[in-house]
Amino acid sequence: MPPYFRRRSSYNFKTQFIPSTPDPSGKQKLNTMEQRTSHRAFALRNSHASLPATVPAAADSLRPKPHLTRRYETQYIKQNGDIGFMTRVAPAQPVYESTCAAIARGTLIDTEYGPMAIEDLSPGIHVKTETNGMQELLWRGQTLLIHGVPNQSPEMGTTIRVSSDRFGFDRPSRPLMLGPKARVVMNNHEGGLGLQGIRELIDGENVVSIQPPTPIEVFHIAFAKQEVVAASGVLIESYHPGRKLDKMISREALATLMGLFPHMTSIDEFGPQIYPRLDRREHMNAV
To answer: Are 126 and 112 in contact (CB under 8 A)?
Structure first.
């Protein structure tokens, strides 16, 4: 039998030579430090092996989920007529996200100076409304849409692309990009007008959900009362929180919401909705 044989260690995956006969001289003893180190590494690698497989899953289920927030930036008319600027962090929840996520950057809005991109509008400019002519813009809000953010509402990572002439000739006059919270004016089954969420009109062909490859700014605007404005020929609502919202959310949530509108002291100042909101089955065609 050869003086040595090979044995592969089960703990450090190195090939070690073990003498087959006693070695009185001790010259061929294993390095004691290396052996201790190998034992320690094996123990660390296998320290979790004996734990039940359900422990990590149980730990994850007990770990609280992160509270997702979003940054909202606003411009508004102060009582003295100056323009105020404010940035506030609020929960990433629909009641707050709907304040800003309606009109994508680059959308043209008719003003006293002609068509202007939504990001160039400032409070104090008079905007052409379809309901009451030129009206002074009192508030503009904006936030950022980022696709793929964990735990956010999936729709808040998308924009909506409306192809040219989707709602009739020159409506829109060119492809229009809207935010997920936009509402457009539609005819209802009773011959009246209503406001339909743009996401309810997605058909995969002329109204398409887009996942932007990079973050994109989205905006909303507000006047002394709710108005309808034309975005590249498509009629959309200005911001309104909805009827009886103050009865549906907590006082704390209402205070956070109104904190995004520093020029207002009460939710009642929004006034009535200009048109009722429609569900998916009520709309017929755009105005």
So the answer is: yes
User: What are φ and ψ of residue 179, in 5° steps?
Assistant: -85, 165
Dist CA 169 CA 103 (whole Å): 21
Q: What angle do CA 93, 210, 284 make, to 5 degrees?
A: 80
Q: How does strand 133-136 pair with strand 126-129?
A: antiparallel
Decide: residue 220, CB within 10 A, 0-12 exposed, 13-18 middle, 19+ buried: buried
Q: Report in angstroms the alpha-carbon separations of 44 from 9, 31, 38, 50, 53.
A: 16, 20, 10, 12, 17
pTM score above 0.70? yes
Nearest CA among 73, 101, 70 for reference residue 180: 101
Start-to-end CA span in the chain (Å): 97
Neighbours of 111 (CB within 10 A): 17
Give average pLDDT by consecutive 10-residue segment, the chain, 287 residues.
42 40 48 46 42 43 66 96 96 96 96 96 97 98 95 94 93 94 88 92 95 96 97 95 91 96 96 88 50
**Six-digit token string for 251:** 């006082």
Residue type at position 95: V
Q: For residue 149, what are the contacts with CB-CB under 8 A and spacing of at least 6?
A: 68, 156, 157
- Contact indicator for 178, 162 with CB cutoff of 8 Å: yes
Task: Determine the Cα–Cα distance for residues 175 and 197; give it in Å rounded to an integer.
Answer: 18
Alpha carbon distance 7, 228 (integer Å) = 82
